Amino acid sequence: MIGFGEVGIRFSSDLHDGGASAVAAFDVAAGARDRAASCAHVALASTAAAAAGTAEVVILAVTAGSVLDAIEGLGEGLVHRPFVLDVNSVSPTTKRAAAERIEALHGRYVEAAVMTSVSLHGLRSPMLLGGPHVEAFRGLMAPFHMRLTPFSERLGAASSVKMCRSIMIKGLEALATESMLSARHYGVETDVLASLADTLPDQDWPSLVRYMISRALLHGGRRSEEMREVAETVRQAGLEPVLSTAIAERQAWSGERGRALDSSLVSAAELGPLLDAIVGRSLSAPGSLTAGRCSDAHRASVPRKPDRTKGTDI
Predict the structure, then answer these.
(1) How far apart are CA 40 and CA 54, in angstroms?
(2) Using one digit for the tens of pLDDT, what is the confidence trace for 77-102?
(3) Angle of the 205-236 helix axis to the 242-260 helix axis, nearest 10
(4) Bridge partners of 129?
(5) Strand extents, DSSP E, the chain
(6) What pTM, to 2 d.p., does this model score?
(7) Which of 48, 214, 246, 284 has the greatest CB tally within 10 Å of its CB?
(8) Which range of residues forms the domain containing residue 211?
(9) Does 253 share its domain with 287?
């Protein structure tokens, strides 16, 4: 397992539970290495090459901006020709570059586009696979009951699905954040939510926007890197990535605010307190969304409703 963040932790646990004989991990970040060292079912390796050295499958689960650097670290660890499953959310061009480097190191590259939330579904998250080694990889992983769909032998095709989808998913998170924080400033968030429910009925809008905002707070840094890859994908399609670039900026902004907040606030049940916490942190920050707030007397709290939105994130 190369990368021991949210995906690496969940995948390694599911592999162990599914009967994997051994799981080794490496991460360049000290905190991630500490997490790996604390897991009884994970052997922490000193280098990426050492982690891959005897593995049948190497899972590449790093941030979008560090994929190619992570591959360079594999070095001699792929001489025995293991499968390398690249689950990173990057552009088709980056996927093809990654494949070229993996194959040059004698690994067998398998492109993967993860199409739902790993936190919810773990190793059984639906994946679109690409490249010439898909069928052999599926056969090896059959005992783990993964949801693997062959998409195309043409590298980058599966990734293009994920990239275009991310414009919508990460864009909705950015829109929810900007809309609700602005509405909270003017004391009209309940009115905006009511109008949204009238326009798009049968949606629990308070729960939906709260979920989307919290995901950006928790993972905005990683999402902003992905959206820069999305912007490149859009650019290669002949379009100016006006919205993708803006989404990347708002996701990065949310990630910075999320790191400054107490985790209990991010997981709070109510939308209103979460918005207040974000605004309170951002009032004096350069480039903050607002320069002030309306008084509490002009803001109504958002009622708690059942959360029917889980599963929309990746």
Answers:
(1) 19
(2) 999 999 999 999 999 999 999 999 99
(3) 130
(4) 112, 150
(5) 24-25, 43-44, 57-60, 83-86, 108-114, 127-130, 148-152
(6) 0.83
(7) 48
(8) 163-298
(9) yes
DSSP letters spanning 99-129: HHHHHHTT-EEEEEEE-S-HHHHGGGS-EEE
Inter-CA distances, 279 with 256, 286, 293, 297, Å: 13, 13, 8, 17
**Quick one: which of 68, 2, 64, 10 has its CA closest to 29?**
2
Choose among 29, 40, 26: nearest CA to 77: 26
pLDDT tens digits for range 165-191: 999 999 999 999 999 999 999 999 999
CATH number at residue 222: 1.10.1040.10
The token pair at 93 is 């061009």
Q: Are 58 and 74 in contact (CB under 8 A)?
A: yes
Short-list 200, 216, 244, 230, CA closest to 313: 216
Residues 91 and 168 in one domain: no
Residues 14/123, Cβ–Cβ less than 8 Å: yes
Express the helix, strand and coil content of the chain in percent, nearest 5 each.
Answer: 60, 10, 35
How many domains are there within the chain? 2
Phi/psi region, residue 287 (left: phi>0; alpha: psi -120 to 50; beta: rest), is: left
